[in-house]
Amino acid sequence: MGKTTFIPLDLKPPEGVQNTETMKQRDTVQISSSFPARKILAVGSGKGGVGKSTTAVNLAICFARQGMRVALGDLDPLSDIAVILDIHTPEEQVAWGPEDTPPDFDACRLEVLPRLDILFPASKTAPGQSGKIRDLLFRHFSRELNERYDILVLDLPAGIGREENLDFLPLVQNLLVVVNPEPTSHVSAGGYIRAALNIHPSLRIYLWHNRYRVDPAGTFNTRAVASNYNRFVEPPLQIRRGETLLRDLAFVPEDPSLNLLKGGLPVALPVLNRLIGGLDNLNEQIVMSAPLNGSLDPVTAKLLRYHVSRRGAASQTLNPEETLKYLEAFRSAGEELPPPAREAVLGFLKHLAGDRVYQAGLSARQALISASEDLLEKDRLFSPALQGIRKGSPDTAATGFLKVFAGSRHYRDRYMRYTAALVLYYYALYRLMLSKPVSELFKELIPLRKDGGRVVRDRRRQIGFLLEKDEQYHRRYFLFVKKLFPVAMKQLDRLAVSLGLRTLLLPDSTGGVNRNAYLRLLADVIQDTANSGLGILSGQRFNDASREMEKGAANLMKALFGPAKP
What we know:
By secondary structure, the chain is an alpha/beta fold. It folds into 2 domains: 21-255, Rossmann fold; 260-290 and 355-536, no CATH class. Helix content is 48%, strand content 10%. It has helices at residues 21-30, 52-65, 80-84, 129-140, 142-148, 183-199, 225-230, 269-289, 298-314, 320-328, 339-353, 356-379, 394-406, 414-433, 436-445, 459-467, 471-499, 515-531, 544-561; strands at 40-44, 70-74, 109-113, 116-119, 151-155, 174-179, 204-212, 246-253, 448-451, 454-457. The strands form 2 sheets. It has an 8-stranded mixed β-sheet with strand order 3-4-2-5-1-6-7-8, with helices on both faces. Strands 9-10 form a two-stranded antiparallel sheet. α8 (269-289) runs antiparallel to α12 (356-379) and α14 (414-433) packs across α17. The protein starts with 20 loop residues before the first helix and ends in a 5-residue tail after the last helix.
């Protein structure tokens, strides 16, 4: 580990660095660094909460594990990087020397992994601190950076603040913009890209799609950041065709490992969320395949299916008048739909209201959401004891839905049938995860530490287990999977027999039960549960988001350095 003392960033800047806008711009231009700009990656976002700092940390870890010497500059005032890595910065700090002599480089860094250092891992909330860090990085520490590191990753604060963010861009060559698949994120990212290009027209800009998903109705292109932004701004503010090439590098799906708010949750909750997701998937398929007559134009038809799939997931009822108002809001001057189109909408809603599987799925979802709320409530300190489950039993809801599905016409659709098979398996695992012996097994898998008299999860130690290939930890993980799998299959078989649903078991090529598929699903669930809220994807072997993260890191390395890394 490196030294654990850091400069106090509330001290005044050294002589020659002033806080006026004119001086900030002039100082940016004058700085000349020996560290090549092409080896600097700035990570930014138009708005907060999109996973920017988590992306920066995971990319830095990926680079380090591939043999690169990495410096991760923590430029966000709140120092989210320290929170993600479960690092507690020390109280002692190093001040500037006589006559404002800059601090020693080692006083500003912390080694967190082999080949990975964090620079400035402390809170930076006082005025002028960002300008001071910029001066240190690109003037005073230029030689040390060049000698020690192959790449410098800068985690910029969200938004388009001049001193904290945009003033760094003229000194770099590569900007990675993190976005989420939603309109507000795309518009904010577009505004940030516009501001960045105004400052540095030749900046190479890459897009990192986090929590990625495809809009099932096709009304919102979740990949088209520039065009989605341009729709909401006047021509002078738009990102013009040919002005820059926005290259998509990765599409990382939603993953509980990356949500720090999901750490320390009941072990049954991740699999319960998968169960709810399976119901949502089935209901969405029903909405997308429901008949709709030709009185609606294609765009309005897509909007209708989109609205119903989203609204149905949030409520058990579909209000016809609300649906019509939603569709009319997209028409010129909010004009009403013509009578044939209104009749088509009402007929569509009536069809879904009479679909027993669709209605059973909505009802089951509400009961399972209530069950997840109860799991959280029971896990909180000082919560009153709860008697049973509110708003209906999750057992009755899940099993009732599966029985209705098995006797419906939707059962003939192979994709829907396989999705229902996953719902059955996740329900079996949910029942298993509620048992005390399984909870105790998870406690053996997750490292703990004492914190102020409490026993809490030792996230930093668990991150180390993943990244430094701790053989003992991985052995415990595989033994856990091996021990739990026969129990899970017995639980599944008993449920299938008791419910008369053996035809819903996933088949293999010989017509038997596909045990390999169920083993993989169980390994995924255990990993999701153990690593929920960890903040780190690298090192997870059975994880789609981890694979996409590693792929994106490889794409980024090739874009920065070509086929051969430095």
